[in-house]
Amino acid sequence: MDGILIVDKPAGPTSHDVIARVRRILHERRVGHTGTLDPFATGVLVVLVGKATRLAQFLISADKEYEAVVRLGYATDTGDITGAPLKNPSETVKPRLTWTEREIEMALQSLCGESYQVPPMYSAKKSGGRKLYELARRGEEIERQPVSVHVYTFKPTKSGGELLQDNADGTVDLAVRVVCSAGTYIRTLAEDFGRLLGLGAHLAKLRRTRAGDFPVSDASTLEQLGQIVDEGSLGTILVTPDAALSRMPFVHLSASDAQRACHGVAVPMKVVSTESWAHGEQVRMRDKKGNLLAIGIYDQVRRLLQPHVVLAGEDRR
Predict the structure, then answer these.
(1) Strand 130-131 and strand 164-166: pairing?
(2) pTM here?
(3) Domains, the chain, ranges and CATH?
(4) 2, 8, 17, 38: which one is catalytic?
């Protein structure tokens, strides 16, 4: 049971809760994921099972894609719908509705490209071994270092032909699509967008529709996963470790070299065409049958492939 599952996370549970549920469904202790989703968020959670947990470092930095709703009218202390409004309870929400569609698109576009984001206090990022949201809930706020992020796409998506949707409380919703680098906080984008329009804003909905090469169309709900396991059909949705790293170059090893790789011993590449490999490049090391044995690091000077993460061999639980 070694591979990758694409789970469609429901709203409510934490990503840790989802992993715990998957462990119980699969009766497998070694289960992890490649990127946290907030409890209120839904969508793609890439789950690693068995020896595939060793591949997290190769998948965690993949780009992400989201569908979200930015609510204009007031900000919250968490930057999303779960937080307390940052406004006087008696204050009437009156967003400015004078923006043109062009002005909205330009404001969104201005937030694209490379930039630095300060991680929100209400986030799972750690400082001194403690998650920031744990400190925030105790009323503490600490200095956070800005993180480099890249927003490739930040554009509106019309619902029913209308760009903005009015709510009964005077707020206005804007549906958006975001494609960004790993580590980008969509709620921070929502807040920044509101500031550009001159009013508070927060994230009302968030759905991750893609993580790297894994779209939500390939995802299974927890209920579906349980049914698939009961039917003995897990193999129909379990992505092999090799397939999960399909963008990484590969080499097929002879029987003797495969044995060396399984023991973590460097393998000579003198008889293999490696012209397209850069020094330090990560390479899939396969046996003759195409089974993934290890991920190697190429030494261009010595023309050696040094196993970095070994998946084959003895299973040490």
Answers:
(1) unpaired
(2) 0.89
(3) 3-62+213-242 (3.30.2350.10), 64-211 (3.30.2350.10), 248-310 (2.30.130.10)
(4) 38
